[in-house]
Amino acid sequence: MSIQASKFTPDDFSYIIGIDFGTTFSGCSYVYAKDSTNEVDEIKEWPRQGSAIYPKVPTVLLYEKDSKKMIAWGYDAIRQASVPNNNGILVNKFKLFLDTSIHSPTELPNGLTPLEVISDYLSGFHAHILVVLKRSLGKIFDPSKFRYCLTVPAMWSDRAKNIMREAAIKSNIIKRADHPDRLILTSEPEAAAIYCEKKSNQFKLTDGQRFMICDAGGGTVDLVVFEINDTSNNRSLCEVTTGSGSSCGSAFLDQNMRHFIEKRFGRFAKENKLVIDDLVDQFITGTKPGFENDDDEYLTLRAGTKFGDQDPSKFGIMDDTFYITVDELREEIFNPVVNQVIDLIKGQINQSKKNIDAIFLVGGFGQSKYLYNTIKNKFKDQVGIIALPSRGEMAVVRGAVMFGKNPRVVTHRIARRTYGLKALLTFDPLLDPENLKVVMPNGYVQSSNRFAVYINKGESVMVDKCVSKTFWTFYPIKISPDLYAYDGDDPPPRHVTDPRIWMVSAFPISMPEYTSLNESTSVKLTVNMYFGLTEIRMEVVIKGKVFILASAFDTHEMKNTSSNISSPDTSCPTTSSQGSVKTTSKEKNTREKLSSPPIPLYRDFPFGIGLNEWSISNAQPPLGGCQNSEENKNKPRNKPKNKRNKKKKETKI
Ligand SMILES: Nc1ncnc2c1ncn2[C@@H]1O[C@H](COP(=O)(O)OP(=O)(O)OP(=O)(O)O)[C@@H](O)[C@H]1O
Ligand SMILES: [Mg+2]
C-alpha cells in the first residue's frame, strides 16, 4: 500500500532522542534540538534497577511459558525470572538474530520472531523513556515533537536495518504514516566517531588526520576509519574505509567460559546447570571486567553441586571454589575473541591507504584492560594514540543524538556493497541467454533480469548525493524497480539471477491512472537513489509523482512533486524533459513482427522496466548532485529527435 506523506521539516522537532539498542544493554540519550550548547542528557534510571550503576538497561525480556505474551523487560525481567517457581521464559541476546553471519542462533521460544521480540523490547523501553521525559519536561512534554536516532551495527544487512525500522513502527516509536525521516538509523561506529571527535581536542587531531573507531560491545565489534576535515569553519568527518565488524563481542567471552566450565564438569554439567549459571555470572561481573592476564581466578561454588561419588578436584574444584589458571583464561576464554578483534583492526589499517593516527576503543568490551593492552602491544608502533575516551560505554548513544542534531558532521561514506536495479537492458546475443530476450512495443530488443548498477562497492559517496537514472515502461503496466545487491570485489555480474546477487527489497508501484495515455504508450520514470545514508533511500518519479521506498515493508507516495522531498536535506529533481513517446504505426508493425513466439513480449515481465538509452538524467539537485554514471559519460544528454533512427548500443554499467 502506498502512503501519502507530507513534507518533512526537521525544525518541527524540538527533541532528538537517541536509542542504542544493544545485544546485552540498551541506552537512551536526548538533546534539545534548539540548544546551541549541545548538552546531551541521558536516561539514567531504569525500572527495578536496584543498586546497578551501569547507565544502560539489560536487553532482556521475560515471556509467559508457551505464549507470545511479554511479562517484563530489562531489570524487571531478570528480577522476575529469579523468583522461585517462576516459569516464564527469559529471552536475551536477540539482537544477534539480525546478524546473518551467525549461522546457527538458537531458536527463539514460543514461535516468536526477531521482529516480535525486538518490537516488544522497544515498546517497554520507549514507554519508560516517555515516562521519564514527561517528568523532566513537564508542560512542554510533547512526543509528537520527538525525532529519533536509532543505532545499528555498521555490518548489518539492509534487511536487518529494515527490520529495525519496522520494529520502531510496531513498537509505536514512530507511526507508519510518519515521514521516514522522523527516524534516522545511524551506524554505531559512526555515532561513536562523532562522540570521540568531540572529545578529541585533548588528542589534538587536525585536518587530514585519521582515526579508527573500535566499538566493542556485548555482541558485535564494529570498526571504521574516519578522516578529519577541518579546512572550513565546520569540522567534519569523512568515512574512508568500508566498515567491518564481526560477532565477537564480550558475550562470546561469557560463552567461552560456559563451554570451559561445562567441559570440566563433563557428564555432570546437565545436573549442575544452576551452579554453572552462577559461575558464569561471577565471571561476567567479577573476573571479566578486571582481567589483566596476571592472576589465576577462583570462583565460589554455590551449595548443591553434585558429582556423585567422584572426587571434586577432578573437576577443577578446590575448597568449594572453581579454579581456572591465568593461562586458561587467556588462551581458552579471552584470546579466541580478542584475536578476532586484532584481525579486524589489521584489516582496517590495511584498507586505509594513509597512516592512522589514533584508535579509540569504545563500548563495554572496549573498556577491557586486557583488550586495550593487547591492542596497544600489537599496534603501538603503527598508531600513535590508542585511547579509551571517557564514558566510552555511552559513546554510541551520545554520538547518535549529536548526529541527529547535525547530520552534516559526516560528509562522505563508503558504499558497503554494489547496488543496482533489476531492469531490461539492451540485449547482447553474445552475453545474454536467448530466453531472456524481450521485444518491447517500440521494437527494441532487450534482455530481462539485467543488473543496472547504481553504485559500486567501495565507492566514496557524499552523504546527500543522489544517483539518478531514467527508465521507461509502457502504460499502464505495474512496475517494480526491485533493488539488488552484490558483495563481491569482482566486476558485478550481468544478471540479477546470478547466485552472488540477492534482492534487497521489492518496490512495487501501481502506476497512477492517466486518462490521456493510451495503452502501450511509453512512460518515463526516474529512479533516484541516495547511498550516503545509513539506509538506502530510493525514490521513483513518474510524471511528477514521487514514490519513496522507506523500508522493504513500506512505500511512501509523496503528495506533490520531488521538490517536496526533504530527504536527505535535499531532493533530486530530474531536469530531462518529460515527453511521453507515442508508439508510431511503424513501431507497432515491428512489434507485431517481432512479437511472435519464441521471443516473449515485455508483458511476460510485468515488473520489467527498460533502461532508456537516450534520456539518462543529468539532474543536479541543489546540494550534492546526481552522480555522473557511466551512462552520463557515454550517452547523449538529450533525447534524439528521431528515436527510431538512433543506433542502439549497449549501455555500459
Ligand atoms: N571491562 C570489561 N571487560 C570486558 N567486557 C566488559 C567490560 N565492561 C563491560 N563489559 C561487557 O560489555 C558488554 C556491554 O557493552 P555494551 O553496552 O557496549 O554492549 P551492547 O551495546 O549491549 O552490545 P552491541 O553493541 O554489541 O550490541 C557486556 O557484555 C558486558 O559484560
Ligand atoms: Mg552497543
From TrEMBL:
InterPro entries: ATPase_NBD. Residues 584-594 have a biased composition (Basic and acidic residues). Residues 635-653 have a biased composition (Basic residues). Residues 566-577 have a biased composition (Low complexity). CDD domains: ASKHA_NBD_HSP70_HSPA12 (cd10229). Residues 559-597, 618-653 are annotated as: Disordered. PANTHER family: ALPHA KINASE/ELONGATION FACTOR 2 KINASE, HEAT SHOCK 70 KDA PROTEIN 12A. This is Actin-like ATPase domain-containing protein. It comes from Phycomyces blakesleeanus.
